[in-house]
Amino acid sequence: MPCRTLLLAAALLACCAGTAAADESKVITLHPEAPWIGPTTIGSLRFLGATAIPNDKEEENTLVGGLSGLDYDPRSGTWVIVSDDRSEHAPARFYHAIIELAKGTPEVTLLGKTTFGQENGALFPDAKTGGEVVDPESIRFDPSGRGVWWTSEGDRKLGLSPFLRKTEGNGVYLANFPLPAMFTMHKDQEIGPRNNNTFEGLSFTPDGGALWLAMESALYQDGPVATVDAGAIARFTKFDRDGKMRGQYAYQLDPIQAKSAGEHSDNGVSEILALDDDRLLVIERSGVNEGNNHWTLHIRLYEASVLDLNDATAPHADNVAGVESLAGRKIRPLSKRLILNLDSLLELGSPSLPKIDNIEGVSFGPTLPDGNRSLVLVSDNNFNPDQITQFLAFEVLP
After folding, report:
1. What is the DSSP code (8-state) at residue 48?
2. Which domains does the chain have, with CATH numbers?
3. Is 131 exposed, middle or buried (0-12, 13-18, 19+ CB in 10 A)?
4. What is the pLDDT of residues 206-241, one digit of tens each?
5. C-alpha dihedral over 357, 262, 64, 158, to 10 degrees?
6. Would you give the DSSP letter of residue 14?
């Protein structure tokens, strides 16, 4: 571990000892002398290795699980990783970490946890207590230099809408991002977002001037969710940092990847990562329920683009901002190309990768010794003993 990282780890370990959301020592301030990484082209990905965190792993008296999003700050060399725990195991939170890739296989060191604070300063309650129950799904460092942004999927039964918020690195609430009315949850009407199918994807453009929000699957008015016979439409929306919509586009999801013996199999977007202003890396996650709460996951990484991927000078996707319903309309979705089907990794026979689990987070990591960028994925074990929390590392080949 580099000396700079050792010093940073020691500092974070010292400041993360407390549990109060308002611990001012945890404010994340990025180092402006190190530039934010610019646009990236992905030709293919080379698998470096994988590691798993035990399901009984604890950090600062919290059970580490449900890891649904992560992000890397190249200016400090640290990571944030968010749990989608709805405050059932411990108050809603995210973790600070260091992930070393020097040996290829990711070595994950957790440096402490931070609890999210509500606007009034209180911690978020669980569903039994009542109130604003959150379901955190994605987290990103603010490229401007302070704090993190994170999404919650909301809860249709409780009438809670999904949101995007900015929070200090110590968990203190900073701001609520203004969102169009189409993303308002309606518990008594089949309009707007479906439960557990909302803001899974969040990413800033490389210059930090805009951000993308991705729905996991279709709004009610945009048609049905994916089946084994047909895909679905998910809306991807690009905003200015102040909330002004720059554009909204349809992303065409694949069908569910296999027939199921159980219920609730699905396919949806579980995270996005901006490559430049117009292109995104998209995770499509298909969960196939084999019964008895046993799942087989099929994960594919796609490049999606507003422009035609075969002709970068030509527009491809229609801007559907203001279109109330996409059902039955002839629209041009984002162009997409498959970069990697993670099922193929199992053919490598790596002992570090016994299976592919519920991949929900993706971020670029540090630059590798050969000058190429790294890419790290993380899985959400759903606090299910039949699943695992795994980190997968790749080299980005341009």
Report:
1. E
2. 3-397 (2.115.10)
3. middle
4. 999 999 999 999 999 999 999 999 999 999 999 999
5. 130
6. H
